């Protein structure tokens, strides 16, 4: 398995030359202002989830991804540093990384994909982010964001391989792509050459693919570690 299979072809519209998919048009939440800075507990279930005992859910359905991610976090127990259940600690850390990504995404419409390669399945979630005309910030679907953070949190806790892609629609028709590799519970930035290799290599045959037209493959900034800072009294000197 190639090192970049954790994110190339895992839901990003350009990976593997799959057909472009527009982000969901559900209820949007602006990212600007004080309200978004408050930490909220991880929701127990995404809105609109089917009742228990319903028909089987496909593995790529958001409900399945949410349930599997939350179950993995619950099975992880408590964070060894702060003592808080991982379903809260890891979810909060994932939400912090998402905020960091959006702060550095720049102008334009953004499409993020996070994938985690578990031993028996691949968890993948996407998030569409658009400019919020009313507030001057950004808007995205709350349900999409919850599932996205659950997948990222599962990767932070499990230490499984995976990746994260940020595709930005800039001045039409230009787009840019940046990526991070998820390994050992950390997001590691990819260089321009690594992002190019991930998108211009067939993941099955290993043969080179032509670059996408009007797409710039860019180096990615180094994110925070995403590690738990520990208890407040441990982080405060004296």
Automatic annotation (TrEMBL):
Q: Which domain of life is it from?
A: Bacteria
Region feature (Disordered): 1-64, 201-238
Renumbered to this chain, the Pro residues biased-composition regions fall at: 43-59
Task: Output this protein's name.
Answer: Uncharacterized protein
């Amino acid at each position: 398995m190639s090192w970049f299979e954790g994110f190339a072809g895992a839901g990003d519209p350009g990976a593997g030359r799959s057909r472009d998919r527009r982000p969901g048009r559900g209820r949007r939440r602006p990212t600007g202002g004080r309200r978004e800075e408050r930490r909220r507990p991880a929701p127990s279930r995404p809105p609109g989830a089917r009742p228990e005992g319903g028909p089987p859910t496909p593995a790529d359905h958001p409900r399945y991804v949410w349930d599997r991610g939350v179950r993995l976090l619950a099975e992880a127990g408590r964070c060894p540093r702060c003592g808080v259940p991982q379903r809260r600690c890891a979810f909060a850390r994932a939400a912090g990384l998402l905020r960091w990504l959006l702060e550095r995404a720049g102008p334009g419409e953004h499409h993020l994909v996070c994938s985690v390669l578990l031993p028996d399945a691949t968890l993948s979630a996407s998030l569409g982010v658009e400019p919020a005309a009313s507030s001057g910030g950004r808007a995205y679907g709350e349900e999409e964001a919850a599932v996205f953070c659950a997948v990222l949190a599962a990767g932070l806790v499990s230490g499984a391989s995976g990746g994260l892609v940020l595709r930005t629609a800039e001045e039409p028709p230009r787009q840019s792509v940046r990526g991070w590799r998820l390994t050992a519970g950390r997001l590691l930035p990819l260089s321009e050459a690594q992002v190019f290799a991930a998108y211009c290599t067939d993941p099955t045959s290993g043969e080179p693919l032509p670059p996408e037209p009007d797409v710039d493959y860019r180096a990615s900034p180094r994110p925070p570690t995403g590690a738990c800072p520990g208890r407040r009294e441990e982080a405060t000197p004296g």
